[in-house]
Amino acid sequence: MISLILSLCSLLPATSAFDLGQSTRCVAIPAEMNTCRDVGYTEMRLPNFLGHSSLEAEVIPKSQEWVPLLQTGCHPHARTFLCSLLAPVCLDTFIQPCRSLCVAVRERCAPLLACQGHAWPEDLDCDRFPAQEDMCLSPVSKEAEFFYKVLPRPTCQDCPEVEEPLAHKRVLEAFCQNNFAVKVKVHRRRMPADELEFEIEGRVEFISQGHLLPYDTRNLLQQWLFVNEACAQRLTRGGRTLVYVLAGDVRNGVVAVNRIFPWHRRDTQLSVAVRKWKHHKC
Q1: Chief location of this protein (predicted)?
Q2: Across residues 108-121, what is the average pLDDT?
Q3: What rounded mean pLDDT belongs to the chain?
């Protein structure tokens, strides 16, 4: 994630240097540019709003550097915002991202940059984008923004210690102190360019549903792994698929994992706690 942020910061200064009066050409969005496929158009302008003029040497590699941030799901329109800069739609006039779009994405994605010790880059000042929403790309409607705000989202947090359940009463206390508990398989695989990808394998098994029930729990926990990469690495040591019981909270629209117990086949204390939970009174 840190390498992503450094790359992100290196992308941005070129934006302010882009001249809307310069000559451009239209090219097809390459198939290798997965980030900006299926965005509603098939041709893009070169140079783009980041000053890139080469697809192979600049645009495609830079688009791949954004994938980890997009995987966090920090904002549903983050990809639209990114692609409006990397792969501007090819029309008779230049179409920049709207200021409202920039502000909405910044509010949700900037905390992830702050989590790694970086502020939202000054070169991406939202005031430099047009405020007239009929002259820019993909304004964010108030209805869509409201809908997104009511969905819970993972938070950047310190990784809880992985606790060996020495007594089932201790596990029951953890369930009582949190409003959800789930059993999950966490998998780690190595991707091209030596990148790691973490995923929740298979279905999520509910122990205590809490406030997670109405939502896509697997996707929320998957995003939690992407947001908290250091914790995901700890949970996937050795590259094996490991099983854990995660206990946490959903409060004020934020998902946090507070307790982590490893699930072993012969761990009687944890399995006893799970069985007793059905009839346990906190």
Answers
A1: secreted
A2: 77
A3: 82
Residue 33 phi, psi (nearest 5): -90, 70
Tokens of 27: 């090219």
pLDDT at 130 over 90: no
Q: Residue 28, exposed/middle/buried by CB under 10 A (0-12, 13-18, 19+)?
A: exposed
Tell me the pLDDT band of 64, cut-offs 50, 70 and 90: confident
Topology of the domain comprising 153-277: OB fold (Dihydrolipoamide Acetyltransferase, E2P) (2.40.50)
Alpha carbon distance 196, 229 (integer Å): 9
**Which residues are CB-contacts of 173 (< 8 A; sequence separation ≥ 6)?**
none
State how far the alpha carbon of 154 is from the alpha carbons of 79, 95, 113, 144, 217, in Å.
Answer: 18, 32, 14, 19, 11
Domain residues of the chain, as ranges?
Answer: 2-149, 153-277
Calpha distance 93→247 (Å, rounded): 52
Lookup: tokens for 265: 């086949």
Q: What is the pLDDT averaged over residues 96-115? A: 87
The CATH number of the structural domain formed by 2-149 is: 1.10.2000.10
CA-wise closest residue to 108 among 132, 157, 72, 63:
72
pLDDT in tens, 233-258: 899 887 778 999 999 998 888 899 99
pLDDT of res. 2? 34
Say how many C-beta atoms besides its own lie within 10 A of residue 116's C-beta. Answer: 14
Residue keyed to tokens 């992830």:
112
